[in-house]
Automatic annotation (TrEMBL):
Pathway: Purine metabolism; IMP biosynthesis via de novo pathway; 5-amino-1-(5-phospho-D-ribosyl)imidazole-4-carboxamide from 5-amino-1-(5-phospho-D-ribosyl)imidazole-4-carboxylate: step 2/2; Purine metabolism; AMP biosynthesis via de novo pathway; AMP from IMP: step 2/2. CDD domains: Adenylsuccinate_lyase_1 (cd01360). PROSITE patterns: FUMARATE_LYASES. Residues 358-438 form the Adenylosuccinate lyase C-terminal domain. The keyword Phosphoprotein does not apply. Homotetramer. Residues from neighboring subunits contribute catalytic and substrate-binding residues to each active site. This is Adenylosuccinate lyase. Its EC number is 4.3.2.2. Catalyzes two reactions in de novo purine nucleotide biosynthesis. Catalyzes the breakdown of 5-aminoimidazole- (N-succinylocarboxamide) ribotide (SAICAR or 2-[5-amino-1-(5-phospho-beta-D-ribosyl)imidazole-4-carboxamido]succinate) to 5-aminoimidazole-4-carboxamide ribotide (AICAR or 5-amino-1-(5-phospho-beta-D-ribosyl)imidazole-4-carboxamide) and fumarate, and of adenylosuccinate (ADS or N(6)-(1,2-dicarboxyethyl)-AMP) to adenosine monophosphate (AMP) and fumarate. It catalyses: (2S)-2-[5-amino-1-(5-phospho-beta-D-ribosyl)imidazole-4-carboxamido]succinate = 5-amino-1-(5-phospho-beta-D-ribosyl)imidazole-4-carboxamide + fumarate; N(6)-(1,2-dicarboxyethyl)-AMP = fumarate + AMP.
Amino acid sequence: MPIHPIEYRYGTKEMKEIWTEENYLRKLLDVEVALSVVEAELGIIPKNAAETITAKAKTVSLDMVKNIEDEIGHDIMAVVLAISKKCGDFGEWVHFGATSNDIIDTARALQFKESIIVLEKHLKELLRVLIDLSYDNRKKVCSGRTHGQIAIPTTYGMRFGIWASEIDRHLDRMKELSKRLLVGKLSGAVGTMASLGADGIEVQKRLMDRLHLEPAEITNQVIQRDTYAEYLFWLANIATTLDKICIELRTLQRTEIGELRERFGNKQVGSSTMPHKRNPIKSEQVCGIARVVRSYVEPALLNNTLWDERDLTNSSCERIILPEASILADHIIRLTSKILSNLEFDERNIKNNLEILGGLNLSERIMIELAKRGVGRQEAHKIMRNIAMEVYSSGKEPINVIKNNETIKRYFKDEEIDRIMTQEDYIGMSVTIVENLVKRLEEKWF
């Protein structure tokens, strides 16, 4: 009976498959098989033993392993015994010179490798959506907001471009992280390679070459968990970017703002009691799940603080946080792509919000023009601030207060003020900024 929402509600099929018990067992078996092949190459175990282990490991089932584990209470030894039973006399060579975490940590690295392939694909899909939105909306002027208040104009191209740039950095971090994360070990009980003696370094190197991983430079019984924590933090960092995106989308869908909205299906229901509702439920789901992904950072950090050469406190924790964080982060990456791909803009509300202050949001522009014409910058700021305060207290039309100001009348004709207060003309270099960004990202990733 399904219990966890990952089982029936959240997650992509490809990421879930990576973290199934079956795939984890396949990875453990892959490591054990590769170990036997390498050891046979070096003459450490008989060649026939490696051939038998390679053939018989394929026939080991999850049920068989679980039944053995129920009897002996040790998961990796259950895998070892399952292979051994299939191999007859050659079974004595299974797991030769290895300790449990040689197999576990190397298998985890293989899972991380598969996960990063999926995450990279989905991050690039999201980046593609954001690049297209940035370019297509590079001239769509809208109200900028700081502190939740109307500021000078910006463009939707700038908004989407900022998010695209952030995803670009997450992809860069992934490449850097992979160098440290996709690492396996075969260094024994406390990291000294004592069980393999002089062959230890060569066995580990050949094993990792065979598995397309990097060999750990130094370990104790486990690969140090700062690398796992880095992976979890990377996922949390991605989740926070998605949270930021979807908070903004939810804000812009508020009834009072209404500049854009999630696409609403023809038969979709917003509320069980208020039929008029069009709630941003997908964006809210992203924000909610992002909180969960972020919460895994602390346990991941604590998993690095093990006693001496290791203890087992990280094990149970990792069985939970590694699959859940990977699956949930991947889920909200895909969901954010779908949300952004189906946005609906309300051009009327974008225009209304841009003009809601009657041009007062262009006070910076008038201040700059005053300074250029001889009024000191600080004095110009004071003039425009006083005008704003008068508008707020009197309810007068901003354009009238501005044009009737004695200092402004001395430096500007009315038609100049009208030109200066055109919202669409005060977006600076935003179009060029976005076009340069899009060009760079296209060349880098696509």
